[in-house]
Specification:
Length: 279
């Protein structure tokens, strides 16, 4: 494992065509690999328009393994990259999940993470579609130890800390978030808060954060993009605008140990005082 790794972020706008969306995602993986990326991340639910904006969607979930997951596996293998494959609408028996697969450079499945924190707000009716997952997963890859969380998980420091305690060096957040027409953000700037809370997770846990959002107008929602990578002390290494594209950032994994050695965020924890967190 090299201490310096190039990450690729594939920021996409979604159409009504699943086939086109998947094709665009795979092209993005190819472009990121051509730019030297060793780890590539896709957005949340990238194969579909954001169907949880409505409570009446009849979107069909997919099986894992299945044709879609096999296409993603093949893309990782063909391009020789570790692929954090956004997320898929998964069916498993009677349950449905929002599921992120991570593949290694040979196309093998390294981890399968099911979104734990599920929002239920106007235009984000995800509890109508997804059951919550029950735990976290960190994959050991040639690009480092990679943890995966999904979108609304971004607001929970416990989830980021759990990944850090499991050894994550890079934490990827496939995302679908934006402004909603008719809803006034009276509490403040949503986008600014979204980035700030994740930068805080990076610093508090001495790990790299990679957040990959979608873009474009879908119904009443305008997805703001803003995909970014920040280092282990909060420096923004790349920040996308609101257009589609493939963006890269070079990260130094050794910086995480340097931050921890200097600041001691992990070694000075006091777990005995955290009982309230498990209530």
């Amino acid at each position: 494992m090299a201490p310096r790794v190039r990450l690729g972020l594939v920021q996409l706008a979604m159409s009504e065509s699943i086939e086109r969306n998947v094709r665009n995602a795979i092209h993005g993986v190819e472009e990121a690999a051509a730019k030297g990326s060793k780890l590539v991340c896709l957005p949340e639910l990238f194969a579909w328009r954001y169907f949880p904006a409505s409570r009446e969607s009849r979107q069909e979930p997919v099986s894992i393994p299945g044709p879609l997951s096999r296409s993603l596996s093949a893309a990782a293998r063909k391009n020789g990259v570790v692929l954090v494959a956004g997320s898929l609408f998964e069916k498993s028996g009677r349950l449905r999940y929002n599921t992120c697969l991570t593949f290694d450079e040979r196309g093998r499945t390294l981890s399968k993470y099911r979104k734990v924190h599920i929002p239920q707000d106007e235009h984000y009716y995800e509890q109508d579609y997804f059951a919550p997952g029950s735990g976290y997963s960190v994959a050991r890859t040639v690009a480092g130890r990679v943890g995966t969380l999904i979108c609304f998980d971004q607001w929970y420091p416990e989830a980021a800390r759990a990944n850090a305690l499991m050894g994550a060096q890079i934490l990827c957040y496939p995302t679908a978030i934006g402004w909603v027409n008719g809803i006034d953000p009276v509490e403040g700037d949503w986008k600014q808060a979204w980035e700030a809370v994740q930068v805080g997770h990076a610093i508090a846990n001495s790990l790299v954060v990679c957040a990959v959002n979608r873009v474009g107008r879908e119904g009443d929602t305008t997805f703001w993009g803003g995909s970014f990578v920040c280092d282990q002390f909060g420096k923004i290494l790349v920040r996308a605008g609101d257009d589609e594209g493939v963006f890269t950032a070079d990260v130094d994994l050794a910086l995480g140990k340097l931050v921890e050695d200097g600041w001691g965020f992990a070694r000075n924890r006091k777990p005995r005082t955290y009982k309230a967190l498990a209530r």
